[in-house]
Amino acid sequence: MRVRSTPVVDVVDETFVRAEPLTVRAELEEPGVLDRLWPGLRLEVAQDRGAKGVRWWTRGEVAGRAEIWLEEVPGGTIVHHFVHGERQSASRRWEARHRRRWKSGIHGIKDRLEGRTR
């Protein structure tokens, strides 16, 4: 007997941004930013951690959880990002598309906050 399993998503990323955690969070909270970075995910706040970030329950293309953790370090913030859960979409390329979209978006924010243009 063959057991059919649901594909698991496990995306982990971190990016250094030369800015304070609350400044980074304000950028991420701009209307539409997370919708553009995470299309297909419907988010429900599980825990608002203030300057340390937010944890969500996710539905849509991934049923599980997501987090942006803002770690203050000398000279700036490390933006930790993860999505973990079961992929509802049949596409095996979901994770690769998600990673590219996230990296492009967070680097756009990084460039703006660090005074570079993209």
Q: In the CATH classification, which architecture applies? A: 2-Layer Sandwich
SSE topology string: EHHEEEEH
Overall SS class = alpha+beta
The fraction of residues in strands falls at 35-45%
Give the distance, in angstroms, between the N- and C-terminal Cα atoms.
53 Å
Query: What is the CATH third-level topology name?
Result: Alpha-D-Glucose-1,6-Bisphosphate, Chain A, domain 4
Spans where pLDDT lies below 50 across 5 or more residues: none
Measured as a percent range, the helix fraction is 25-40%
Instruction: Give the domain tally.
Output: 1
Strand line-up across the major sheet: 1-5-4-3-2
Mean pLDDT: 92
DSSP strand count: 5
Individual helix count? 3
CATH class: Alpha Beta
Major sheet, described briefly?
Answer: 5 strands, antiparallel
* CATH level-four homologous superfamily name: START domain
Rounded radius of gyration (Å):
15 Å
Anisotropy-based shape: globular
